[in-house]
Specification:
Blueprint (H helix, E strand, L loop, with lengths): L2 H16 L6 E4 L4 E4 L4 E4 L10 H11 L2 E6 L10 H14 L6 E4 L9 H11 L3 E3 L11 H19 L5 E5 L12 H9 L4 E5 L1 H7 L4 H9 L3 E6 L1 E7 L2 E7 L8 H9 L7 E3 L10 H30 L2
Parallel strand pairs: 3-4, 3-12, 4-5, 5-6, 6-7, 7-8, 8-9, 9-12
Antiparallel strand pairs: 1-2, 10-11
Length: 319
């Protein structure tokens, strides 16, 4: 059996064991129905962006994983933002040919004045893609934090005027560092100022741990629970290089994120949005084909890890 067939068979076995019914479900309070987790798990395409692979080849890869993409629609991504109206439908068709949907896309959009903003939202709306990651806004200094937050919120209000009627939700990613959202306490301030259900928290427990390793990530998550509409999952460690401490991304479960605690907390919520698995650690390969295959194996491994953790947490929380 070809290695890819082995991976596919292994994933199918894991999916069957995920719940006795083969379908992992969580409450969806907005739609008043049960949302199938297998339709909400996705894998970030950032890991293969630089390989220049045709979207049809990426779709075939993801079909072997059994999940859709968190598709990059930004500079250097799978879909060039200036061609979103032409190329995003083509990408959606390629994944549909493999029996997959696109749960979310990742963009650099954070301002309606960006010429690609409106075409991106309108194309999403026409394709039924409901979630997108916003581009980043940054603090200009600690003294200007309040002004920076207010200016970012104003831009998101304008975006929500277009996106909300289309049923589209924008996610503020809590990227660590100088990005607005990184400290976590600022996300509610932005969301309150926006005042629209069309903007949510795109919660990332790894970046939250990086900024608040012991307790800060917990209280930040707790404050944001009603407003989390999307999740990003990745892991990291601290390493010392040339006398400086730096972060290094690593496979899920090998880093500092407390996955059992996080998943237990998540299981107590009504979260029903997409869950994007990020493979941001180095993937080796002497050729593009070899690296492509190694990316597939890494994604399969990390998907299996997060599925086990969610099964354990939600199984314990269920009757």
């Amino acid at each position: 059996m070809h290695r890819r067939d082995v991976l596919k068979a292994g994933l199918a076995t894991a999916a069957g064991a995920f719940l006795p019914s083969g379908a992992f479900v969580a409450a969806d309070p907005d739609a008043g129905r049960l949302a199938d987790l297998s339709q909400r798990l996705c894998v970030f395409t950032d890991q293969v962006d630089d390989l220049g692979s045709p979207v049809a080849a990426i779709a075939r890869q993801y079909a072997q994983l059994g999940v859709g993409p968190d598709l990059t629609v930004r500079g250097g991504g799978v879909v060039a933002p200036e061609r979103v109206a032409e190329d995003l439908p083509t990408a959606a068709a390629a994944f549909a040919d493999q029996g997959l949907t696109i749960p979310m896309i990742s963009t650099s959009v954070n301002d309606l004045s960006d010429p690609v903003a409106r075409p991106t939202l309108e194309t999403m709306g026409s394709l039924g893609i409901k979630h997108y990651k916003l581009g980043y806004a940054h603090y200009h200094g600690v003294e200007s934090w309040e002004t920076d937050v207010q200016e970012f919120a104003k831009k998101l209000r304008d975006l929500s005027v277009v996106g909300e009627p289309l049923g589209i939700t924008a996610g503020i990613h809590n990227h660590s560092g100088e990005s607005i959202g990184g400290p976590l306490w600022d996300v509610p301030l932005v969301l309150d100022a926006v005042g629209s259900s069309g903007v949510c928290s795109y919660f990332d427990p790894a970046h939250a741990t990086l900024e608040g390793a012991n307790f800060g990530w917990k209280i930040g998550f707790h404050r944001l629970i009603p407003r989390i509409g999307m999740l990003a999952v990745k892991d990291f460690v601290w390493v010392k290089e040339n006398g400086q401490w730096r972060t290094r991304w690593c496979p899920l479960g090998e880093g500092l994120v407390r996955w059992p605690e996080f998943c237990d907390m998540l299981a107590g919520t009504d979260f029903s949005g997409p869950i994007s698995v990020h493979i941001e650690y180095a993937i080796e390969g002497s050729t593009k084909v070899e690296r492509f295959d190694n990316c597939l194996a890494a994604a399969e491994r990390d998907l299996a890890f997060i599925k086990r953790e969610l099964q354990r947490a939600y199984g314990a929380a269920s009757v």
